[in-house]
Predict the structure.
Amino acid sequence: MTQSRNDADVAFIKALAELLNENELSELSVKRDYGENDSLNVKVSKLSAQPVPMQYAAPQATAPQAPASSPASPAAPKAETPADPAQHPGAVTSPMVGTAYLAAEPGAANFVSIGAQVAEGDTLMIIEAMKTMNHIPAPRAGTVKRILVSDGSPVEFGAPLMIIE
């Protein structure tokens, strides 16, 4: 009797795992009661590292298109750059996971805009992480060529934020 119930529990857990994958869920918890003091608690989950890049990839992919479409002529010669801005030599990458803000507060002017000259150490944007506002400084002097994130968008560690040449 115990072996057949064990086999049924294993089959139940496998079915939950399939349900998790088929419906693109990240976690599933179930409690199965067999009697007064007899139950089975099952929690099936995927590693959180897999869904996170997929969630952040969509906003980053759509955000670069908006700035690139406004100055149409500079975007045309650099057809390879939009494919992977992180590989650009002038890319400024995020030092942390958080939410990017282009201005100090809502309604205020952005720290920088496309075409702006920046000096090393100038604030480019703020990344909020765990209720802390972190100023992101320019790693070098140059001209802001592209802004790859939109105001209020989530960013992950190493994600390209801007291109400074």
Q: What stands out?
A: Residues 126 and 135 are 5 Å apart (CA to CA). The two ends are 72 Å apart (CA to CA).
